[in-house]
Amino acid sequence: MRVEYRPEELIVFEDVSKFYGEILGVNRINLTIEPGITSLVGPNGSGKTTLMNLMTGLIQPTRGEIRLLGIAPTDPEQLFRRVGYCGQFDSFPRGVTGYQFVNSFLRVHGYEKRQAEEKAWQAIERVDLVEAASRKVAGYSKGMRQRIRLAQSIAHEPQVMILDEPLNGLDPMARAETIRIFRELAREGMHLIISSHILHEVDTMSDRVVLINNGYILAEGGVTGVREEIEDHPMQVMIRCNLPRELAARVFAAPHVVEAQLHPDRQGLFVKTTDPDEFFLMMNRLAIESSVVIESVTPVDDDLAAVYHYLIGSSGGGEV
């Protein structure tokens, strides 16, 4: 059952464009973001950072309107009581410890000494850095620096977290721990807007994805839903069977099969079909009527990477 959200529970872009002189940042963005983990995915220069900077009020739109939980980004005092922001670049005062980094932010935010101390330790405990909190941040690993920045961003208990490339440069264990924290925050009802190039983690952690290229939103929704929107994108299927050559000849005769290729181990077959429903029905018939013993039939590209590369291919350039 679909949950109906009130406007003050949503992040809304209405016909938003941003131009840097004659250079396009984003164009005609209409987007509604519900609570949960939303990942912005696109190549460098696609407009992900521009969208995040618009949400936080660091830049203003050339046209259009933005509301975060009913608040305009032009009201920073109200906005940053509800929003936590974690940019992709490290920036720490010289000689500061992890605890001082979080605590000083809360004091600047207006919290009294005792309350700031309590909230700082709560945030540090949440990211599992209590033992390192008294050490200087300069001696932290990349993963620890990411986590202390995350602690600072959540210390004032925001309802929206905006995280620009938070998984960038992390080792697998640090990534897994960071994703665990994100999921925990999402379960508590928080909005998390995350930009990333790391498609596998995005695929596994996101409630929805927004695919961006050249300043335009190409698709949005759940990974599977976005995949289903692309009707002319052939679906690739891996078939394990005892007679892959014979099966290849049989399936390639079907009009909806556009490619059939043997697996390198000669124990399987990759097939691309434009009509998955008809293809699976055909597999059922072949399993009954032919001498081919079909062990498994598995979609292998029903993921974000396949959708992403189909929509935009490879692209380069600098982030706008």
Explain what this protein looks like in three dimensions:
The chain has 320 residues and is an alpha/beta fold. 36% of the residues lie in helices and 27% in strands. It is built from eleven helices and 13 strands. It has helices spanning 48-55, 76-82, 98-108, 113-126, 142-154, 172-187, 199-205, 223-229, 244-252, 276-289, 304-312; strands at residues 11-20, 23-33, 36-41, 63-68, 83-86, 160-164, 191-196, 208-213, 216-221, 235-241, 257-262, 268-273, 294-299. The strands form three sheets. The protein has a six-stranded mixed beta sheet with strand order 5-6-7-3-8-9, sandwiched between helices. A four-stranded antiparallel beta sheet has the order 11-12-10-13, covered by helices on one side. Helix 3 packs parallel to helix 5 (142-154). It is elongated, with a radius of gyration of 24 Å. The two termini are 38 Å apart.
The CATH class of the largest domain, by name, is Alpha Beta
Number of domains: 2
β-strand percent reads: 25-35%
Question: Strand count, sense and closure of the main sheet?
Answer: 6 strands, mixed
Provide the structure class.
Answer: alpha/beta
CATH superfamily of the largest domain: P-loop containing nucleotide triphosphate hydrolases
With helices defined by DSSP (H or I, 4 residues minimum), what is the helix count? 11
Task: Describe the structure concisely for a colleague.
By secondary structure, the chain is an alpha/beta fold.
Keyword list:
320 residues, alpha/beta, Rossmann fold, Alpha-Beta Plaits, 4-stranded antiparallel β-sheet, 11 helices, disordered C terminus
